[in-house]
Amino acid sequence: MQIQPGALTLQQLRQVRQGVDAIELPLASWEVIRSASDTVNRIAQDPAPAYGINTGFGRLANTQIAPSELELLQRNLVLSHAVGVGEPLTDMVVRMVLLLKIASLAQGFSGITVELMELLIAFLENDILPVIPSQGSVGASGDLAPLAHLAATLIGVGEVRIEGKTVPALEGLRRLHREPVVLKPKEGLALLNGTQVSTALAIEGLFAIDQVARSAIVTGALSVDAAAGSVVPFDPRIQAVRGHPGQQAVARAYLSLLNGSGITQWHQDCEKVQDPYSLRCQPQVMGSVLEVLGWCGDRLLVEANGVSDNPLVFTENNEVLSGGNFHAEPVAMVCDFLAIAASEIGGLAERRIALLIDATLSGLPPFLVKNGGVNSGFMIAHVTAASLASENKSLAHPASVDSIPTSANQEDHVSMATFAARRLAPLARNVATIIAIELLAAVQGIELRAPVSTSAILSDVISCLREVVPHYDVDHYMAPDIQAALGLVEGGVIGGFCPCEFLTEQE
Questions:
Q1: Where along the chain do the CATH 1.10.275.10 domains lie?
Q2: Pick the catalytic residue: 51, 254, 277, 472?
Q3: At 408, is the pLDDT very low, low, confident or very high (cuts 50, 70, 90)?
Q4: What InterPro entries does this protein's entry cite (predicted)?
């Protein structure tokens, strides 16, 4: 994979999650790395204090460090900050963390050595993945604790994952025929400062929510036909007078999915005047989701391509400037928007399931099963969807509005970005499960309208489901049905039928 620091794409980030065989940096990147490293070495020899190079950290920034202890300073920084707790980050997220850290350091504002960059690249190329606990960062001064666990493996401390097995970090270095690195001035700080963990978690969440959003468009169209809903609310003239591009794109998607449906033709002269909002307002809700995901993807790419180290090295005049690029507020706010969007996807889908099982609204057999009473059908499957939708409301509470002072009040406002990003995965899983239940319910409802049939494309969706889950004839052990449908949602099979793009991939 060729990496242009400052110009990563969503496509590259998707790709690296599965692993890469080689990372290639431009020649210019190696030149600026050397230049910045030389600048740091010169500053380290100067008696004038330079934060993080020959001083302590945080409230200890006024403590001068002797030249003979500068390497020990960096090692101690890494070891003292490796205090993460909780379940380890997934391998896919750790690969993204490594790529983001490489791309940031390669821009030449951090002062690391060529040797350290080569080791980081070797870890990623050989899929030697630091074990990084998921909890312990407040998203200010960077993701200090989790990134310290990454840095520790480079000096031979901690653990790494190789081919799915957790082994000591020294074993990973032996695989590379390398000795533990001795950190030079500022290198420990450069590794620890940065928003790479929160950004990687946010991007992983973005991809997952994109997948469920695509699937929700498809299951939403299925529910329209299952409930004998109208396609009039998707008329382009309605969307045009409001003007939101996302709403217009989503309405076109519904019309495309429902085009040629026999059910639509069969009931177009029925007595119903208007459908419930969960059917009728899908363009307005899902169009908003489309625009939010697009905006969030753009913002996260900016963050992925930025430099969030501190202090920053400017080689043209041998300056080291302290600032606040490590503060992850941009990531935290993006994650809050993503969480709200995801919760709304699930909330709307849960309402459609409730509509389908209610015979007075859908005109279908109660709970979508014949011989009701003996059979409970989808009664409690809806309860599961409702419980997840309710749980998501708590998960969608903004994290960025919280702050807790740390480091003896030196770091007196924090972003909580890492938590904001970390909760996106369970939130996306909850939504995917709701969508899986809707898929089962909507397909069941359409089949109960036989011999009238849906559109050709939605018929293909039904065929995909019926390859793994049979029609619900009588009550049976239903949990495996939901798991099989969930596999189709999370695996991208259902979303693959969606005719509109939520994220625009950059080539």
A1: 10-194
A2: 51
A3: low
A4: Aromatic_Lyase (IPR001106), Fumarase/histidase_N (IPR024083), HutH (IPR005921), L-Aspartase-like (IPR008948), Phe/His_NH3-lyase_AS (IPR022313)
